[in-house]
Amino acid sequence: MDYHNKLCTQIRDLPRSGIRDFFELVIGRSDVISLGVGEPDKSTPWPIREAVIRSLEKGQTSYTSNLGLEPLRVLISEYVEKQFRVTYDPKTEILVTVGVSEALDIAFRAVLNPGDEVIYHEPCYVSYSPSIKMAYGVPVVVETREENQFALMAADVEKAITPKTKIIALNFPTNPTGGIMPPEELEKIAALAVKHDLFVFTDEIYCELLYDNRQHKSIVEYPSMRERTVLLHGFSKAFAMTGWRLGYACAPAPLREAMMKVHQYCMLCAPIMSQIAGIEALKMGASAYEEMRQSYEMRRNIIVSRLNGMGLHCFNPGGAFYAFPEIRSTGLTSKEFALGLLEKKSVAVVPGNAFGAAGEGFVRCCYATAPDLIVKAMDLMEEFVNEVRK
Amino acid sequence: MIPMDPLIQLLTLNSNRSTAELAGILSLSEDEVRRRIAAAEADGTILGYNAVVDRQKAGQSGVTALVEVRITPEREGGFDRLAKRIAKFDQVRECFLMSGGYDLAILVEGKDLLDVANFIAEKLSTLGGVLSTATHFQLKAYKQAGFLVNAATDEERLPVSP
């Protein structure tokens, strides 16, 4: 059969994630120290796992409301209010999803007509551009730069706005850079969204993981933003719950209703076990992650000082758990660097260009890894860098 | 509650880190780390260092008992003088003043049941002021000093993920 011509062209022409290619090189090697993951190195806190075991013993294995369990939505509403100082009605404005990935997908599908443009920033998580394309939108990239500590500059956003622009998509702190937004730029972007009557989708998945005593500020908090914002958040990173696939979207009722329709037909509901885990996680609140956050901050200090010490310039990321050192001084491309480091020293990092062209010249090193392994990986990386420079 | 000094906190989690590693984590110089540790040792903030060991795996024989001790408080000093005296025996690994139905909880180690029994009968019970003892022998360890004993290693993670 001629699969090539029978596949949907839209999907056929999507590139595979660069991470996927790299994953296949690493898999099957047992000796690798991996700084290539995008998740915490700890399992989900025990009280959360224990609550789910108990629910299974009780036989809680059914479908839930399409929207998600009501007690979970109530807790989400309280948590979001505390975290972002914005109130959402659990009945009409909150939808529980299968991770933020699904929330993002259904939000794009609910809003975009073919040809509508979405402004997003790169380097970024791998699914933004494909998700926009799968919703028949047009991705419009704005690069974030190291000189701005990978914050998104409002002036760059303004240049990208056209009459077809419908959405600005934000993700701060950012995977893979660890960049955060200075409030003054965020405020300007909010003003642009209001001026041009745009939606803003803000993926807040790393918002709990901020360092140096920073307080998180979301774009939804600015005047006239709540009505045009879809706030996307989930449990994966802060609560170490990546495998549970649990996220949520908060949005004004008409938007939530449109998203609910897509979710209802393609997903039905998030798994009940995961939702029960989410209830327990939100009951624990910050106590579930504060210790992990502090330990990430210590690990960040180790990795950033070691990277700079070996001559790989690395800015001090304000959030998430990624260091994003520049490797141009070695004369290698991102891919050559990552491949060489893997082959010669058995250390896995992810080439920066897997996160968009703007990531070329950088590699992503996840520091949600045990400190002694970070130190060992840095020793090996230093050897590699010295050998390459000789 | 005053948060613990981050250096001390790190050492309570793992006292086996090198000075260089601690310096890296805390963004301090190695000299500063050494100076602070020496100061904490000198003023008794740090009492000592132990490896937490699964005794069965280490092949160490011996028994441990939790002994509940009731004692008579004294006019001056309350329970302190006698508690400190009891704590000084090498066989006593831990010694705490407790609220509730007895006064001191002590952890006693010996090479076998008889050894512990002799210590209690001959040394502990005969001390002036000791009213009674109740001895509970440990049968199996599941968690020690915050570490699970014989825990299954963590589940596998993908080596590279987005």
If you had to describe this structure to a student in words, what would you say it looks like?
- The complex is a heterodimer of chains A (about 400) and B (about 160).
- With about 400 residues, chain A is an alpha/beta fold.
- Chain A has helices at about 5, 10, 20-25, 45-60, 70-85, 100-110, 130-135, 155-160, 185-195, 255-265, 270-285, 290-310, 335-345, 370-390, and strands at about 35, 95, 115-120, 140-145, 165-170, 200-205, 230-235, 245-250, 320-325, 345-350, 350, 365.
- Chain A has two domains: about 5-45 and about 290-385, Aspartate Aminotransferase, domain 1; about 45-285, Type I PLP-dependent aspartate aminotransferase-like (Major domain) (Aspartate Aminotransferase, domain 2, 3-Layer(aba) Sandwich).
- In chain A, strand 3, helix 7 and strand 4 (about 140-145) form a beta-alpha-beta unit.
- In chain A, helix 12 (about 290-310) runs parallel beside helix 14 and helix 13 crosses helix 14 (about 370-390).
- The mean pLDDT of chain A is about 95.
- Chain B has helices spanning about 5-15, 20-25, 30-40, 55-60, 80-85, 115-125, and strands spanning about 65-70, 90-95, 105-110, 130-135, 145, 145-150.
- The longest helix of chain B has 13 residues, at about 30-40.
- Chain B is extended.
- By secondary structure, chain B is α+β, with helices and mostly antiparallel strands.
- Chain B has two domains: about 5-40; about 60-140, Alpha-Beta Plaits (2-Layer Sandwich), CATH 3.30.70.
- The two termini of chain B are about 40 Å apart.
- Classes of the chains: A alpha/beta (about 400), B alpha+beta (about 160).
- The interface of A and B includes residues 38, 43 and 348 of A.
